[in-house]
Design a protein that fits this description.
2 copies of one chain form a homodimer. By secondary structure, chain A is α/β, with parallel strands linked by helices. Chain A contains 15 helices and 16 strands. The radius of gyration of chain A is 20 Å and the shape is globular. At the A-B interface, helix 13 and helix 14 of A face helix 13 and helix 14 of B.
Chain lengths: 369, 369
């Protein structure tokens, strides 16, 4: 399932290959997020054009709408949305805890109300895995509780114990593809280690680090990964959930992470924000009014090959759909291109120096080029 | 400039060819509307894919935003928006009277406030033509007053006189492309005739019928065209502004009209409404939930080749951008395909029977297929 092709001599970075029912994924990999059965503003053809190897689907959202009868009728998410590449689905746990209303957590799962119409719903480990089976997921994630940040140690420990009991239940449910465990444990080193060891003892096809990118400072995010990593098997892929900014991903790769997903490229695009190798720019800003250059010089994405910053600024200001479409395309091309670059640097044995120069050259705040 | 290739033996329909600086247009033609320098939700590549020969730009909107300094800086609308085919621009008259606030009409033009920020603006015949020259329009429309429906005869007559005085002024302003006069006169036969004759006496490259599709019943719309048509030269193109539904366009072609523009295909798409040869369907409707068929059987547009009604319904219900993108593509493909069909029927001498069968088969209200 996973081939570890190369390990970096001076960091923990890894070059790998993950084989799924719908295709081979070269890692490190970034996975565009298709919450409601579509990566926002992008067509499947455009996803292939920008270089997506695998995309995400959200169990919670698809369970709420269009619902499992529809998904079953259409034979799963691949055929429903017209994407024949690999799909990873989350378990719905994160959304149940972040989006849904009036939750009641029991040993069996979570009672909640749909964020759309308040309808009463239930998701537990069995249900979450069965839904992912219906979706035809190539990589199904275990149903877990994602504790908030900050989180008291007591709650984190009790929550983790339940998440691990759920993990054992999830393991028993048959799904057509791979199954990844999710390491929780909040900001506590011993809990993270305990979680990693317990999940590895159960045995999964890959391991995710969950409970990151939930509002904690960046050093806590990196530490959470550092806490888990030594206890994860080298021959299985590691996935840091919901991450991140470009330098965060580079740092995570250096810490041994292989897979990422994040809404930033498409979410920020809808606000006029574009990624460049030096940082983000907001195309709404006045300096771009007369700018005849592309979003980033040398970028070969569809937006940069054909359109100027000045035109994109106009589209964003006029709230035209083409504007956010083009910036979404550019941003995903940038994220996927960064991962391709990382893979090449790993192959060339030059990842560490790339890591240093990329991080040094990337502004953490919005820039004006 | 215009070649009349063929006239229909049993109707007034015409097959023609209009030559512009940016390309040749086969008529009858439908022109997608790109109000703010983009046809809503469509990229220029997609416009070519759906078969657009020429698109519209709106003087009023581009004058307000991004403004003429920007348009001048970018060398006109073609290069600004990345469309190298022909562009027709309206004169801004229609929007000044329908969108802008606090208008004061004088002999020189119209003082108004921007609908965006209330800024005081002025557009007159000279300004409108100069703006269209800056935009690099291939077909510039004369600045006119479009009287509302219903309209008293007295006002219609006085308004028309001023519009004709403005027409003479517009004629004097140099623009790089063709110039079309606009026949006004509201619902009054003699005023329509007067307008047509006066404009023809001045001499323009084409003639538009304005003041239609402003809320009048359909028979008034058709009559307005019938009133003008006999007084328009056969060797110049005729353009019915802001029209229409598919059967309205077919009927207008039969009455000797060559050119159409309308926001319906893209505007209705954003509401989930798709065109078919039997009428419109609204993809939000429940019967489509489990529907595995394309929007229209046999349609070769990008949406129908790849996606089901069930998936499109989900996208529309979830307010996902891909949904309105795909329906916009389908609707424009349908409109442009209808015009292509009309041209072929004209060439084959079978337009009249097509007109009859199409109109009979097209429901005027939303249908369930």
């Amino acid at each position: 399932m996973f081939q570890l092709l190369q390990t970096d001599p001076s960091t923990k970075a890894r070059r790998g290959r993950l084989i799924t029912r719908h295709g081979v994924i070269e890692t490190p990999v970034f996975m565009p997020v298709g919450t409601q059965g579509t990566v926002k503003a992008m067509s499947p053809d455009e996803l292939r054009e920008v270089g997506a190897q695998i995309i995400l689907g959200n169990t919670y959202h698809l369970f709420i709408r269009p619902g499992m009868d529809v998904m079953r009728h259409f034979g799963g998410l691949h055929s429903f949305m017209g994407w024949d590449g690999p799909i990873l689905t989350d378990s719905g746990g994160f959304q149940v805890f972040s989006l849904a209303k009036l939750r009641e957590i029991t040993e069996e799962g979570v009672h909640f109300q749909s964020h759309l119409d308040g309808a009463p719903c239930f998701l537990g480990p069995r249900e979450a895995m069965e839904i992912q089976a219906v979706l035809g997921s190539d990589i199904a994630m275990l149903f877990d509780e994602c504790p908030p940040y900050p989180c008291e140690r007591d709650y984190a420990a009790r929550s983790l114990e339940r998440t691990l009991r759920w993990a054992a239940k999830c393991r028993e449910v048959e799904t057509p593809g791979l199954k990844f465990g999710i390491v929780q444990g909040a900001t506590f080193e011993d809990l993270r280690r305990l979680a990693a060891e317990a999940l590895v003892a159960l045995g999964f096809d890959g391991y995710a680090i969950g409970g990151v990118s939930v509002g904690e400072p960046e050093f806590e995010m990196l530490r959470a990964v550092e806490y888990c990593e030594p206890f994860l098997p080298v021959d299985k892929p590691r996935y840091a959930m919901g991450l991140g900014t470009p330098p965060q991903m580079v740092e995570m790769v250096a810490r041994g992470v292989d897979m990422f997903d994040c809404v930033l490229p498409t979410r920020l695009a809808r606000n006029g924000t574009a990624f460049t190798s030096r940082g983000t720019i907001n195309l709404k800003n006045a300096p771009f009014i007369y700018d005849k250059g592309p979003i980033e010089d040398g970028c070969l994405c569809a937006a940069c090959r054909q359109f100027t910053r000045g035109y994109l600024r106009h589209l964003v200001k006029a709230e035209e759909i083409l504007g956010l479409r083009l910036i979404s395309q550019h941003n995903l091309y940038f994220y996927l291109g960064l991962m391709e670059r990382i893979r090449r640097e790993l192959e060339a044995g030059s990842f560490a120096s790339f890591q240093q120069s990329f991080t040094a050259g990337y502004a953490t705040h919005e820039i004006i080029l």
